[in-house]
Design brief:
The chain contains no helices and eleven strands. Strands 2, 4, 5, 6, 9, 10 and 11 form a seven-stranded mixed β-sheet that branches. A four-stranded antiparallel β-sheet has the order 1-3-8-7, with no helix packed on it. Strand 5 and strand 6 form a beta hairpin.
């Protein structure tokens, strides 16, 4: 099992930056593909970005391409989301999630961290 805890959210002005972190428990973090999702008020949860277990492959949703960067440090059991050029429409609760290699869906989820971008 993997337990995930997000941190780094907050209030920032449009155009600003934030770096989210996701700390994972357990010794098998390096075996999990990881992802970031977000949910804005009144909207469904949506995919933001994903990274392979080794960190060698990344993927981004179109709205965040060129502004967000996902990374991970398997030695520290941590994953990150660097968010630059933030827009008010990026306001949401951001969740990190983990997926084992034999699973199609994300099996583990954090509790979320609030990101609010003011105009």
């Amino acid at each position: 099992q993997v337990q995930l805890v997000e941190s780094g959210g907050g209030l920032v002005q449009a155009g600003g930056s934030l770096r989210l972190s996701c700390a994972a428990s357990g010794r098998t973090f390096s075996r999990y593909a990881m992802g970031w999702f977000r949910q804005a008020p009144g909207k469904e949860r949506e995919f933001v970005s994903a990274i392979s277990s080794s960190g060698g492959f990344t993927r981004y949703a179109d709205p965040v391409k060129g502004r967000f960067t996902i990374s991970r440090d398997n030695a520290k059991n941590e994953m990150y989301l660097q968010m630059n050029s933030l827009k008010p429409e990026d306001t949401a609760v951001y969740y990190c999630a983990g997926r084992s290699s034999d699973s199609v869906a994300y099996d583990y989820w954090g509790q979320g961290t609030q990101v609010t971008v003011s105009s």
